Every structure is written in structure tokens, then in C-alpha cells.
Amino acid sequence: MKFFVLSITLALLTVTTAWAQLNLAGSVTDEKGHPLEGAIVIIRGTSKGTISQADGQFSFRSTESLPLTLIVSFIGHHQQSVQVRGNNFRRIVVQLTPKSILNDQVAIATSRVPEAIQKSALTVEKLGVKSFQQSPSLSPFDALQNVTGVDFLTQSLLFKSVNLRGFGSTTNNRFLQLTDGMDNRSPGLGFGFGNVAGLPDLDVESIELVPGASSALYGPDAIQGMMLTTSKNPFMYQGLSAQVKVGVNNIGKAAFGPKVYTDMAIRYAKQLGTRLAIKASFQRITGTDFIADDYSDRSTNARTSFFLTDARRGGIATGIGYIPNADANTNFEYDGVNVYGDDVNSGGAFRFPDNYANVLLSKKLVTRTGYTELDVLGNNGQVFNNRATASLHYKLTNSLEASLGWYYGNGNFLETASYRNYFPNYQRHQFKAELRGDNFFLRAYTTQQNADGWNIGQTATAITNTWKSLNQWAAEFGQAYVETKVSVGLARSSANRGRYEPGTNVFNSTRDAYANTYNTDFLPGSTTARGRRFRDNSQLWHYEGMYNFTKLLQVAEVIAGASWRHYALESGGTSFSKQADGSEYTINEIGAYVQASKEFSLHNVTIRPTVALRYDKNQYLKGGLTPRLSAVASYGEHHLRASWQTAFHNPTPEQLFSTPASGSGGQVGGLAQAYTSAVLDTNPGYLQSEAALYQANPQTVARPNPFVIDPGRYTTEKMKTWEIGYKTLIKNKFYIDAFYFASHYTDFSTTQTLYQLLTPGAGAAALLIPANYRTLQVNTNTANEAFVRGVGIGVEYGLGDGFMLRGNYTYQNGLVTLYDTEGSIRNDLAGAPVIKRKMSNPEVAQLGRNFFNTPENRYNLTLCNPRLTDKLGATVTYHWTDKMWYEQGITAGDVWLPSWTSLDAQISYKFPLLKSIIKLGGTNLLNQYYTQGYGLARVGGMYYMSITFDELMR
Fold first, then answer.
1. Mean pLDDT throughout 887-911?
2. 4: pLDDT strictly greater than 70
3. Does the residue 600 lie in any domain?
């Protein structure tokens, strides 16, 4: 009955409004009369409007009464207001004049309400439809690499992590990704999977990026910044759009490349009547991944004598002392970066005892022969990705819109945390219901995912141990080494006889048995060997609302909002610890915020101060307030901004509850529940940095003591940050946006790498044999203080005739003050206190990892002209990133990554009659392979051609 009444009501509304429909139509051109495609046409004071077609024509229906005013805007042109009366509403002619610099964009990410970017009190960057069309990047998401201060960490072709303002991570949980207001990150793992589950490219309208703390309005997950991706509204962007993109990568790789890349996408949107609109979009990508194929000898502080030390100064580190040797025929300890099962610190090495029969092998560490990443995966690097959206939108009034949406992501990808993990068939659904008016919104959504994966390194180790135990392999190696008269290569070959060769039936069946059996279960037919598969099918429910009180108060702009979210962890014990009754943990979080701002004038200066305050509480942690004070002062085209705020970061569910499988290494959550599940309460581990010193010189270095962590003290990470910035437009052709920021972290959330003995009570002497312990990364708060400083500048210069030169430069450094457990400042090994010293300095890195993982310098340069002719456009971009000190996981390492460069370019041609654009482009055109993180994929050239048909059948 209720459904019937609702149906009749909707029908009456449609009939009532249909008679009053007004058909508005016209054209938009530039000053030379050339049609402008994609110009936005909106009725002033409403959200009703459309965009112009390839021939510049536009048309839409409205129930507004004449006369009315249209606001017409197009990127790179001055906005224009057009009066519409009874004599011109079907032949509206709009001519826009070009401008050199785009400086009048509107963003909502900084304050949750629309505001001009140049008057924002925070640093904000925005990319729109035209930016994506002009970018040589492969996708809208990839175009972020051109933005000031953005550091990508490319883990695989489709999985790239965005990092801002230091502490770069492949699993960056200090950065919030929102898609149409929904948290894009994995509910359990707590980090975004890049664009694996993002919007289809054809449905992306804009990406707004706010570097720096945004916790005052967006909560504790936005401590380092946030990104808002907005999809195209079907009332505005209508018709059928389609895109076909083909490309090639992995060129120049012997016996592997080149490989084909395909990308097909379609979108359809339609307005039905005056109030109802629908849309659906889909994208399918297939290709071959950029391969992680660095086979050089691994640089890691787990090596004995890793640091070059100065004995005269107490053994202080002066650099890296370990000399890599990538020849397994001569190197006892060869451990390839992307070779697995040969790890010096994760079950792939054997140390001969002091009393070994052959004195040449006494105390020698020898690594097994491992398998490459391609060997273990067995899929020749094939990747796929499916993304889809569907939504229904209904305008209850001209200013009140209700919508229901479905967002889907599916694909395979590689993820790097403590180890390299492979997800063969990730799937995620998000469902959203939203009611949005001019001064409020109510939103509810849920994230449901199926994320089964397996650990590549542990699987490789398991395969080698299934074939032959480590002890037996070492015994055969030792015997052969004696017989071959000191030949490492021949000894390896002898010990490797009968080894499971990649691609054989026995190798594949063994790998599949481990990869398809959960780490909580024994392999079929075994009572000792457990699988290596894990899952995270956790769910998230989120409810939030906001109201703008400005019209009611009329003295200041005031907004307030609140949110509640509920996590339901679901890993079956494969990733997260369980409760005592065997059930999975749930997590509740609440948050509420208020913001007030007021603009006033002082002589010729306009000043807009803003105050924001938010409170958040995770049920397992102490709650906290995050205030922000900011202001912007404007004098003509000069805008000076400043902000100060505090922020805190709630650990992710993974950081709270993660627990590795019995006997395996991995991450341990910071709460007592996870700590106990890993048996660290009764069998504490040893700090890797202390154990390595003892392992290198057991006769002279004292045996380390177990490192005991109090999980009851695990808390939120805190930060205070301030920033000043300046924007100006000089003579309408030279645009500058510069900033300086300083951040101070306390209760810093990080991981301590521990060696936990597999036999409790065996004593520190057992650390001399790698098979006696497992490597854990335990989440904890350090007493250390971290300081991050940075400057950035972005410039645009109009060269004339449509040519634009853009550039940006960013500098960042990370300093640390170290404290011991008693709160006293620690000294380095030379006795000097470690106070605000660079984290990349050897004497600091020697004392433990800090994971800053950020290059000090980087810049981008772009020369573009979207209208070389009325149909032809082109862009060239050059990237340079400085070398950086990089610390990663358990089986990656500690290393200076070299600097890298990339040259990208595209040329595009429009066919207005076909409403299409052909684009020919490439990234890393010179094909100079580089990595953005240790052990990650090596990124080479990607060359592509695409054809896009936009808004057919409108």
C-alpha cells in the first residue's frame, strides 16, 4: 500500500510539473566563433543545468519562470552571466573570452561548503575533466603525480598509493580517500587500494586534494591530507560516452616484453522528465603488470655488519657497510630483492655452528636458492580490473536531491606491507543513499569486500621446505662445499638437485596447495604444514550528516555535522585476532564537528577567519579534540593564508588487531588482544637492531634482552601543524601558489621489528640460528618526536597563443628526537644526543627504523596547449624525483633509492561531428625503468592510443 501511494505521488508530481516545463537551448563559442565543448551552463541560484556538446550546442528543460539568469563557465575562459527572457530562451548565444590562467575554480574539500580556491585558507589542488583530457597520464588517478607535493608509490600497474608530507607508505593509512563522500579504503586493512576500486574513468568529474591535516572536518584518518573524487551528476552529464584505449608496456625486457594493455569503458546517463535521472558506467582493463624484477642483492639492516661503523667513536654508523653481491655462485648470503625463499631474516637462511667440521663454514650464514616473483605467481604478470557504478537520482524540489548508488570494484593486484602479497580476485561493493539540499546532507553507505590473498615470500619458503628441509639442504650444501674445494656455486647446485622447478606440475600443485589453504588450516593430508592464504572480508557501515546554519544565523557561516561508523572484522582468524568466544571483533567510532567563519573588510583588504573543532572516539582508544584556526586575507589578486591545527590518528583495524599465523612472520596489532594472540606476553621478542649487533659479533657484544612492549599504553598518534601560503595572479598571465608547513608528531605510531624465538625460553644465543625465530612487526607508539618541514610552489605562466607553462617544486625533510623507555633522550653510539636529526642519517637509522620514506626534492614541468588549432592539442610533462632513504617491511630492506626521471607526452585531435577525441600518448617515454619504493614494481614506459566518444544520444 505504501509503495502504491508513493508511486501515485511521484506520478502526480511528474504530471504537475510537466506542463510548466521550459526548454532552454543555445550555443557556446569562443571569441573566434569556435564551438566550446564541455562548457557548464547552470541557472543561477539552482543546481539545474547542463554542459555543451561538441558543436557547442546545449539544451535542457526547466520549471523556472522567465526571466532568469544563466551562469556559463569553461576552463580557461572568463565566466559569463546571460539574461534569458521570453524572446531568446530557445536561441541563447554565449561567447566566452579566453584567459591565460585558471584561478577561479571552486572546491568543497577544504571546508565542506563551496568556496573559491584562491580564497581557501588551506592548500588545495583540483583536477577536472579538461585536466584529465589534457594530461598524458594513463588515467585521472595517475594524473595526481603531476600535483605539487604528491609522492606515488607504485606497487603494481593498477595499485598506486598517494603520499603527502612525509612518512611515505605503500599502505598509507594517514591519508583519507573519499569517493562521492564515501571512504574508499579497505575496512579492515585501513588503506586505499589506489584506483583498483575507484570510479570508472569516464564517470570522474573532478579530484580535489588537500595536502596536510584535515582532521578538523574529516576525522582522524585525514591526519596527512584527504582526496575527494566526485562522479558526474546525471542531470548535468547526459548521453552515451565510450572509450577504447590500447597500449603496450614492458618494452625492452629480455624474454618477456612487450605486452599489450587494453582499456574499454562506457557510460550512459539520462534525465527522465524534469526530476528523475539515471546513470550507469563500466570499465574493463586487462594487461600485464609492471614487474618487480630487481634481482640485486638485498640491502637490509638484518644483514650482519650492515652499517659501516667507526670503532674509534663507539661503533657509530657512517654509511652502509654491506657490499651487495648479486652473484649467487660466489655470495653465501645472496638474497635477491624480488627473489623469495632466500631471505636472510625470514626463514630462508642457515647459520653453520661454531664447531662445524669445516672451519671455512664455521659461523657462516648461507641462504637457500629462491624463486622470482613471476616464478611464484605463475600468471606471467597478467592483471585485470573491472569497475562499475549505477545510480538513481530524484529531485524532490529544485534544491533537494535524493540518490541511491552502487559502486563496484574487482581485480587482481600486488600489495606490499611487511611482505609482498597477491590478491587474485579482489571484490568490493559500496552502496550509498543520500539526501542533499542547498544547506544540508544526510548520507548512509556500506562497504562490503571479499579480499582473499596470499603471501608470496612465505609461499616460496614453504615450497622450498616441502621439497627439502632447511637443515637437510644446509647439510648437503656443507658437504658439497668441502668436496668442491670452496665453490659456492657448485655447492648450491649440488644441494639444489631435485628442486621443484617453476612451471612444473609438482611446483604448481605445491604452490596452489599453500596459496589456496588458509593459514589457520593444515594442508590436505598434512598435520604440520599450514596454508599461506589469508582473507579480509570486513565490512563498514557509515552514517553522517551536516547542516549549514548560515541562513538561520545570518551573522556568520556556521556548519555542524556528525558521523557514526561501525566496523565488523571478518578474517576467520587469518588476519585478525579473535575474541575469547571465537567471534570476530567489531569497532565503533563516533565523530562530531562544528565550523564557523566570517568575512569582513578592513580598508581594501578582505579577511576571512575560520574556527573548526571536531571530537572523535574509537571504542578501544581515548577520544580527542582536533581544533583548527585558519584565516585568509585578500587584497585584489593577492591572497595570504595561514592555519594552525592539531590532529590525531586512530590506528586502523589492522594496526589494532592483526596477528600472523602460528610460526609465521608478519604484523602484530598494538592492542593487548593481538599482543597476547601472538604470544608476545609470555614470549617477548628481541629488537632486530640489537639482535643484528649481537649476531655480527657474539663474542664481543652482550646478549640482548627481550624487548617488552606494554600494549595497554597503545594510543592515538598526535600531530600539531601550522602552515602559511600565498596565491597571486600577476597581469592575468603569471599565477603563483606557494606554501610552507611545519608538523610535530608525538605518540608516533610505528612498527618495531622483533625476532621472536620459536622455542620460548631458548635464550638470546638462539638468535644466532635464523631458523630459531620468526620476524614480527609490532605496532606500537614510540616516545620519539618527529618533525617534518616542507615548502612547495606551483606556478603557471601564459605564454600566449594558448601555450601554458606549468611547474611545481616541493622540498620536505624529516627530523627525529629519540627517547628511551624512561623518557630520557637517547644518544647515538658515539655518545651524542639524537635531537632533531635527519632520519636518513646513518647514525640515526642505525638505532632503528623511522619510515620517513620521502624524497627531499621533487619537481614537475609541463608545457601544454589544448588548442593548437580548434581541434588539435598537446602536452609534455617532465618529472624529477630526488634519491631517498627508504625503509620497508620485513623482506624488503633499508637502502638509498636512486633519483628518477620520467618524460610524458600526449597529442589529441577532436572530431566534432563524431563527438570524439583521438589521443596518442605515453608515460616514461624514454623507458628508463625506476622504482618508487624498495622491492616494488619497476616502472617502465607505457605507450597508448585512445578514442573517446562523449555524450552521444543526448
1. 94
2. no
3. no
Q: Report the pLDDT value the prediction gives residue 12, as an integer from 0 to 100.
A: 37
Q: Is the pLDDT of residue 11 over 50?
A: no
| Side-chain-side CA neighbours of residue 96 (13 Å) | 26
For every residue of 420-483, which 3-state class applies, written as one string?
A: EEEEEEEEEEEEEEEEECCCEEEEEEEEEEECEEEEHHHHHHHHHHHHCCHHHHHHHHHHHHHH
> Which residues span the domain enclosing 480?
307-377+456-535
**C-alpha span between 525 and 285 (Å, rounded):** 39
Q: How far is the C-alpha of 117 from the C-alpha of 101, rounded, in Å?
A: 13
Tell me how long the chain is: 954
- pTM for this entry: 0.89
- Where is 836: in which H helix or E strand? none
Q: Residue 37 maps to which CATH number?
A: 2.60.40.1120
**Closest Cα to residue 192, out of 221, 149, 150, 232?**
221
Could you give the angle at the alpha carbon of 637 between the alpha carbons of 631 and 642, nearest 5°?
20
Of 468, 500, 535, the residue that ends a domain is: 535
Specify the residue for cell string 620519539. 784
- Establish if 790 belongs to a structural domain: no
Which of 96, 116, 135 terminates a domain? The answer is 96
C-alpha cell at 335: 638474497
> Three-class SS of residue 553?
helix
Split into its structural domains, the chain has a count of 2
- CA 674 – CA 654 distance, rounded (Å): 10
What is the residue-averaged pLDDT of the chain? 90
pLDDT digits (tens, 9 = 90+) for 805-842: 999 999 999 999 999 878 899 999 999 999 999 999 99
Q: Which residues contact 182 (CB under 8 A, 6 or more apart)?
A: 407, 430, 432, 445, 447, 542
**Does residue 154 have a pLDDT over 50?**
yes
How confident is the model over 336-348, as pLDDT tens digits?
Answer: 999 999 999 888 9
**871 part of a folded domain:** no
Tell me, what's the pLDDT at 523?
Answer: 94
The 3-state DSSP class for residue 767 equals helix
